[in-house]
């Protein structure tokens, strides 16, 4: 911010001094706005954290169980088991062309895979 003369600077300083502490804290700052936008973009579906455009739940689960040594030729469907799921522990029933599995997933851990009949 540039001032043409000293009186403009004094006017701004007096306005700031007259503001309450709450008004000073709530005054928007560019760095705060940018941080909030970055957080929102990262949490939004399809954002930096999350699934990519072509990825499906059944494809993601099939890839995970294959990496753990289970066979899933073609993932047909994935249904969330609401009764067994908890906030940080999702349980899914994955139906493949050759078998069905119950897949329990928790953050930062390998999935627990149970073959179903």
Overview of this protein structure:
This protein is α+β, with helices and mostly antiparallel strands. The protein folds into two domains: 6-43; 57-116. 38% of the residues lie in helices and 21% in strands. The chain has a four-stranded antiparallel beta sheet with strand order 1-2-3-4. A hairpin with a 3-residue loop joins strand 2 (90-96) and strand 3. The longest helix is centred in the first third of the chain and has 14 residues, at 30-43. The radius of gyration is 26 Å and the shape is rod-shaped. The chain starts with 5 loop residues before the first helix and ends with a strand.
Itemize the secondary structure elements and their pairings.
Blueprint: H1 6-18, H2 21-26, H3 30-43, H4 57-67, E1 75-80, E2 90-96, E3 100-105, E4 112-116
Antiparallel strand pairs: 1-2, 2-3, 3-4
């Amino acid at each position: 911010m540039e001032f043409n003369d000293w009186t403009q600077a004094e006017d701004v300083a007096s306005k700031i001094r007259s503001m309450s502490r709450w008004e000073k804290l709530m005054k928007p700052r560019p760095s705060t706005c940018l941080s909030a936008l970055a957080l929102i973009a990262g949490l939004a579906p399809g954002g930096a954290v999350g699934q990519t455009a072509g990825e499906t739940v059944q494809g993601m689960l099939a890839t995970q169980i294959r990496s753990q040594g289970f066979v899933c030729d073609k993932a047909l469907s994935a249904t969330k088991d609401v009764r067994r799921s908890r906030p940080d522990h999702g349980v899914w029933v994955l139906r493949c062309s050759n078998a069905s599995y119950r897949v329990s997933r928790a953050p930062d851990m390998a999935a627990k895979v149970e073959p179903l009949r």
